[in-house]
C-alpha cells in the first residue's frame, strides 16, 4: 500500500444515524462528522489555546467554566445537520436544523442529556466514519 492508498483508507465521511432512545425509532436523523474533520479540529485548537492561556494565568475557575462550555461546542461541531423522516414542521415539533435549535436542544431539561449522550456515543468510533471496502 502506498501513501495515497493509506490516505484513502482513513478518509472519513459524514454519517447519518437515527436518534433512537432505548431503541425507539424517532424519525429524527442526525448527520455527524468525525473528530478528524476540519470543523471539529478547529474547535479543539481553540479550546487548547484557551486552556494554555488560562493555565499560565492560573485561573482555575475560568478553566472549569471553559471545560463545561467546550463540551457543547465540541458536540455542536460534530453535528452537520439533522433531518426528519416526515419532514420538518415547526407546528408538529419537528424544527428545521439550526445552531440555535441545536443549542436549545442541548439545554432542554429533559432531552438535553440524551441528545448529548447520543452524539458522544455515535462519534466515538472511527470505523463508523470510514468507507467500507467492497472486499470485506
Keywords:
mainly alpha, 11% strand
Biggest sheet architecture:
3 strands, antiparallel
Structural category: mainly alpha
Can you tell me the number of structural domains?
1
How much of the residues is beta strand, in percent?
5-15%
* Strand element count: 3
Describe this structure in words.
This protein has 136 residues and is mainly alpha-helical. The protein has one domain (12-113). It contains 5 helices and 3 strands. It has helices at 3-9, 38-57, 60-78, 99-107, 112-122, and strands at 15-18, 28-32, 79-84. Strands 1-2-3 form a 3-stranded antiparallel sheet. Helix 2 packs antiparallel against helix 3 and helix 4 (99-107) crosses helix 5 (112-122). It starts with a helix and ends in a 14-residue tail after the last helix. The mean pLDDT is 91.
Q: What are the SSEs and their pairings?
A:
Blueprint: H1 3-9, E1 15-18, E2 28-32, H2 38-57, H3 60-78, E3 79-84, H4 99-107, H5 112-122
Antiparallel strand pairs: 1-2, 2-3
Helix pairs in contact: 2-3, 4-5
In short:
This protein has 136 residues and is mostly helical. It has five helices and three strands.
